[in-house]
Write a structure and sequence with these properties.
Layout lengths: L1 H7 L2 H31 L4 H16 L2 H11 L1 H18 L6 H29 L5 H29 L1 H22 L12 H9 L2 H17 L5 H10 L4 H24 L5 H20 L4 H24 L1 H4 L5 H32 L5 H27 L3
């Protein structure tokens, strides 16, 4: 099945697979270990560490709308390259940070780089993926992302055991080299010359109420997903006493996705409404996180991570695939960019409130508090996706 999907992928899509693999390797090699470095080596509180991660997240997703508009008018390739270069500078700067405010500057720079390349990368993939095979290619894209995560966790574990300085330098260099690779090898469709002003384009998106509601619901999904960057690493270290234990959890999630993503996607094709699939997947993620909160060893953590992975296998490929249902082709990157607010707000709430709930739960003698919140959020996403499906069905949009 893997070879079949690879053969169905055009040359440009294969180049984007390499880009997605590299982006995930650079990100997951640094960010989870940044949290452990700040809260462990530098003795930051979980709340302050969460605020930094939240600032990085919102500086990326808070500006992806502008990044998407720029990609639609300037070109996906140009915006992608610029974003990779900016991310390279931000990640490299982490190696030279001495004061608290230095880390926040590096976080903002790296986040802004992501705001530029993320919507252009998603839009380029959607434009270049053949319509007949788009579902399969998006599922394979999710697998490629997780292959990058596996490589990143082990490389990150190795480099963080040597020195955080080398980890930051290597992550920054990876983005720089990827920018050069994209410059020389990727070509994307010509952009459509815009007849409307930027404000008219923004107004059109803001009037698309079902899409706005969809973006709002996804904040809950990303609240759960971003727990992987702060509370899950801290939980793993608390249970095992080993900083490298997070690598086993990430590897469990990623290997599960690599082995079963295409099979899960094929099975879920029987489900008629894709928004319901997102809700079901998100609920499974919430259950997985709740089980992690009840874990007592690395083995039960990894078993719980499999449940979480099953949820991402159901939801993640569909989340990006449904954006073209809302978006006219000329504004595809802008829609992807606006949808980034779901990750920006949801991710910022995850790392800030998630860290606060974690600290509060320990202070109150209620260690399950952050994981109960995750379970409630996942149930709310499921209900809202059902409401959205009913509304779209009545309007004839599905």
């Amino acid at each position: 099945m893997l070879l079949t999907v690879w053969r169905l992928s055009p040359r440009e899509i294969k180049i984007l697979y390499i880009a997605i693999l590299s982006v995930n390797m650079g990100f997951f090699a640094l960010i989870p270990y940044l949290a452990l470095y700040l809260s462990g080596n530098l003795m930051w509180t979980m709340a302050l560490t969460g605020i930094l991660l939240g600032v990085r997240q919102f500086s990326q997703q808070g500006f992806t709308f502008m990044g998407g508009i720029l990609a639609d008018r300037w070109g996906c390739k140009q915006t992608l390259i610029l974003g990779l270069v900016v991310r390279s500078v931000g990640f490299t700067y982490f190696a030279f940070c001495q004061e608290v405010w230095h880390f926040f500057v590096a976080a903002v720079i790296s986040g802004f780089g992501g705001a530029l390349f993320e919507p252009s990368l998603q839009a380029a993939f959607a434009k270049l993926a053949p319509e007949a095979h788009r579902k399969q290619l998006f599922s394979f894209k999710n697998m490629v992302s997780n292959i990058g995560i596996i490589g990143a966790t082990f490389v990150g574990s190795l480099l963080i055991s040597i020195d955080f300085y080398y980890l930051s330098i290597c992550a920054g260099l990876l983005y720089g080299m990827l920018a050069l690779y994209i410059y020389y090898h990727l070509s994307v469709p010509d952009i459509e010359v815009a007849k409307q002003t930027i404000m008219q384009d923004i107004g059109k998106i803001l009037q698309d109420l079902p899409f706005i509601f969809y973006t709002f619901i996804l904040m809950g999904y990303f609240y759960l997903f971003m727990q992987l960057y702060l509370t899950v690493p801290r939980l793993a270290v608390n249970i095992t006493g080993d900083n490298t234990s997070i690598a086993y959890i990430y590897a469990t999630v990623s290997i599960s996705v690599i082995c079963f993503q295409l099979y899960v996607s094929k099975f879920m094709e029987k489900v008629p409404h894709r928004f319901i699939m997102i809700g079901v997947g998100t609920l499974a993620m919430g259950i997985g996180l709740f089980l992690m909160g009840n874990a007592s060893s690395i083995y039960t953590l990894c078993l719980s991570a499999i449940v979480f992975a099953k949820g991402t296998m159901i939801a993640a490929p569909v989340i990006m695939d449904v954006i073209p249902l809302f978006a006219p082709p000329r504004l595809l990157a802008s829609y992807y960019g606006f949808n980034g607010y779901s990750m920006g707000v949801g991710g910022a709430l995850s790392t800030s409130l998630g860290g606060w709930f974690y600290d509060k739960g320990e202070q109150m003698g209620m260690p399950l508090l952050p994981w109960i919140v995750c379970l409630i959020v996942s149930f709310m996403v499921m209900v809202c996706m059902y409401i959205l499906t009913k509304g779209l069905s009545k309007s004839g949009s599905l």
